[in-house]
Task: inverse folding
């Protein structure tokens, strides 16, 4: 028997103190589920929050992946085995009032892979409902597909915005969401700029000839029609209300989209309610968008993700992976099996 055949399966687990790769027994997918072997796992700001105990999650990390379906249980529907897939990490119950009303993203009983009440995808194999999956077309590479959920959220934000005439839009942050959103908004005839905190991350905008500045270098003139706050920080939220014009719109993204409020820290970024009231500012929350919409936009070449996977790590060396993810120039870290 080859050493590979006897090697135990592994998973990257957070136990409340440390993140480590641990052996794990073989999994069986439940009814309607499939078993996926990830070829890429994205390490996102939300994973950093888990590792720093900012979220209440304990268990197998990972909520962003591209993988190949290895096994499908009864009730999984379409012939999934062998397909290259991405998937929404939000697992809803399908039967509650919100799910029946078409609001499954807000299911009262939802779990989120690697973030809330369900083991994640940072493992040799993981189980996920087949209904969460979308097959990746051949024209979309693994790195782009990894960011399809983020692309879906950027599109979701653009749809929550009325852009009439030449609209002034500021996007706060320099994570993958901000750097994809700036491309989406630029295509809507908006005069758009990124206001970032780490030049090593936001200077990638030069590639798309889109404006960018350090957030500390802009005046607080309250002249922006729309401000999309992507950083999930108190600093970003404060800046958003100082930049938006009276009766303008602030879009607020969650740093850990999909995760229910009760699983998040007791205090979050605070918005100055007086500034909002005086300025008659409209504040709109932006949750997780559709991964299918994101993938479609990538397949049509509407979003350029080249240059956004800025670091690569090996799948089961989480300490090294988190060091890479914390580097100032890291937009997205992909952990992968070493090429054999
Ligand atoms: Zn539900």
Result:
């Amino acid at each position: 028997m080859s050493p590979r055949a006897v090697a135990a399966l592994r998973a990257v687990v957070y136990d409340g103190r440390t993140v480590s790769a641990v052996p794990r027994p073989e999994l069986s997918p439940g009814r309607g589920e499939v078993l996926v072997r990830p070829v890429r796992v994205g390490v996102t700001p939300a994973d950093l929050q888990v590792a720093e105990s900012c979220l209440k999650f304990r268990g197998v990390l990972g909520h962003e992946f591209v993988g190949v379906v290895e096994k499908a249980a009864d009730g999984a529907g379409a012939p999934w085995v062998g397909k290259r897939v991405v998937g929404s990490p939000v697992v809803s119950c399908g039967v509650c009032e919100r799910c029946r009303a078409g609001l499954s993203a807000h299911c009262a009983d939802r779990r989120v892979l690697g973030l809330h009440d369900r083991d994640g995808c940072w493992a040799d194999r993981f189980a996920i409902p087949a209904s969460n999956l979308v097959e990746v077309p051949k024209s979309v590479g693994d790195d782009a597909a990894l960011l399809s959920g983020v692309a879906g959220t950027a599109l979701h934000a653009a749809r929550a915005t009325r852009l009439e005439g030449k609209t002034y839009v500021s996007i706060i942050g320099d994570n993958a969401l901000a750097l994809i959103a700036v491309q989406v908004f630029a295509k809507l005839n908006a005069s758009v700029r990124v206001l970032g905190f780490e030049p090593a991350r936001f200077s990638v905008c030069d590639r798309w000839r889109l404006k960018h500045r350090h957030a500390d270098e802009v005046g607080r003139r309250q002249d922006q029609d729309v401000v999309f706050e992507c950083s999930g920080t108190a600093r970003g939220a404060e800046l958003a209300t100082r930049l938006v014009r009276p009766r303008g719109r602030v879009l607020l993204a969650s740093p850990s989209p999909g995760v229910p409020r009760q699983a998040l820290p007791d205090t979050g970024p605070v918005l100055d309610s007086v500034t909002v009231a005086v300025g008659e500012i409209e504040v709109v929350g932006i949750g997780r968008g559709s991964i299918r919409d994101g993938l479609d936009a990538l397949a049509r070449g509407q979003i350029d993700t080249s240059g956004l996977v800025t670091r690569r790590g090996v799948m089961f060396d989480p300490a090294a992976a988190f060091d890479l993810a914390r580097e100032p120039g890291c937009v997205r870290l992909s952990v992968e099996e070493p090429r054999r």
In short: Residues 7-147+305-336 form a domain with the Quinone Oxidoreductase; Chain A, domain 1 fold (CATH 3.90.180.10).
